[in-house]
Automatic annotation (TrEMBL):
Residues 340-370 are annotated as: Disordered. It comes from Solilutibacter oculi. It comes from the Bacteria. This is Inovirus Gp2 family protein.
């Protein structure tokens, strides 16, 4: 349980809800009530380890086993790559694999789950008593080597690489469009009140979170938000749809209002949540929200509160928040299914100041957004290059000259 507690934060009731209680009786007659990680938490751990293992196999050149001389005899042992892959496959039980059914996994996970579903039952037959290593018996090295070759072959295919690049490009384009919106808003408005809220479906509504009725609910929220019918003086908003293992379809929302007129970000965010539950969903049983303002002191770089075009610390927080919403630089385990429409919805950029031109010498139009541009967009090209380099396989890196010494 200790590993589940985030730094500087105690476990909440929502965290403990993912734990399952078990009564263990010992031979001496005593018993203990213990908490075991529930299936949703185990699924997150499984996905993380599976993706890391598949990426390691694809990008590395090691074999699953290595030979060692012990007492004059050759002994085969699992390499670090082989051990990580082995554990991720043999621990993929049927309950975890069922949670993946019908979900749109990222390419790495989809490949790993396919291997685990097809070869997991056979590989588990070689498991040791401790269930942490493999029995070194004839046939297993050949079987594992076959899986390594399969993974490396699939990942090297153009279709797989194109899918990775496409997902990365979509995330980068989403972030860039949101950052450009921020710059245009800050060029006109010198003080924003920045807020964030997450919108969820609950209970039976989760089962229909992909339905037309659910889409109509978020359509109404976005429409009325843009018309100032929920809160006043909205200057910009960003709404991103996401799929979660337990949450199913949910929405991350960022809103900015005029900071010269408003200060109480907490209660304005509460009004957004109340409108979602009461007017869009219709029942607190079927909908819920998370007011991010409540935890703003815990963020390393906070972006909630008054924000100006020269506030570098707040802009760093805004960059981190928008990058998280757009999944920039980090591929999520699950994606929203295709053919469900736009996953990003945002307000139109401001049209600028209206009215008669001011008297006197011409002045520079708008606020200086050079600091905001540097923070929000300055290293986007460098991130694009680093991401491309990280995705290259060893043979592609050599062909591209990445990492080669200068002549």
């Amino acid at each position: 349980m200790e590993s589940m507690v985030k730094k500087g934060r105690k476990m909440t009731l929502a965290d403990s809800d993912t734990l399952t209680r078990h009564l263990i009786r010992y031979p001496n007659g005593t018993s203990d009530m213990v908490k075991e990680v529930g299936r949703v938490r185990r699924m997150h751990v499984f996905m993380k380890h599976m993706q890391e293992a598949v990426e390691s196999v694809a990008k590395g050149g090691d074999d699953p086993f290595s030979n060692h001389i012990v007492g004059g005899q050759v002994v085969r042992r699992l390499t670090p790559q082989g051990r990580a892959f082995w554990r991720s496959v043999v621990h993929a039980d049927s309950e975890l694999l069922e949670l993946c059914e019908g979900r749109r996994l990222n390419p790495w996970l989809r490949l790993g789950v396919h291997v685990a579903r097809k070869w997991g039952p056979r590989l588990r037959g070689y498991t040791t008593h401790a269930d942490t290593d493999a029995l070194l018996v004839p046939g297993l090295p050949k079987l594992l080597a076959r899986q390594f070759r399969l993974i490396r072959y699939v990942v090297s295919r153009k279709a797989f690489q194109d899918e990775l690049k496409g997902l990365t490009r979509v995330a980068r384009d989403m972030y860039a469009s949101c950052a450009e919106l921020m710059l245009k808003v800050l060029a006109v408005h010198s003080r924003l009140l920045s807020m964030r809220i997450d919108l969820y479906f609950e209970a039976d509504a989760k089962l229909i979170s992909e339905s037309k009725a659910a889409r109509l609910a978020i359509d109404k929220f976005v429409r009325e938000l843009g018309r100032d019918n929920i809160i006043d003086d909205v200057l910009a908003y960003i709404v991103v749809r996401e799929d979660g293992l337990d949450r199913c379809i949910h929405y991350h929302v960022w809103v900015a209002v005029d900071g010269h007129k408003h200060r109480d970000g907490f209660h304005l965010t509460e009004k957004l949540g109340k409108y979602w539950i009461d007017r869009c969903i219709g029942s607190p049983v079927l909908g819920s929200t998370k007011n991010c303002w409540e935890r703003r002191a815990e963020y390393e770089h906070n972006s909630l509160g008054l924000l100006g075009p020269g506030d570098e610390e707040m802009l760093r927080g805004l960059r981190k928040a928008i990058a998280y919403m757009c999944k920039l630089g980090k591929m999520p385990h699950l994606y929203v299914k295709k053919n469900m429409g736009r996953n990003l919805r945002k307000s139109q950029p401001p049209r600028g100041q209206r009215g008669n031109p001011k008297r006197g010498a011409p002045r520079k139009a708008g606020n200086d957004v050079s600091v905001a541009r540097r923070v929000l967009l300055g290293d986007l090209a460098a991130l694009k290059h680093a991401r491309r380099e990280a995705e290259l396989l060893p043979q592609d890196r050599r062909a591209a000259g990445v990492g080669a010494k200068a002549a």
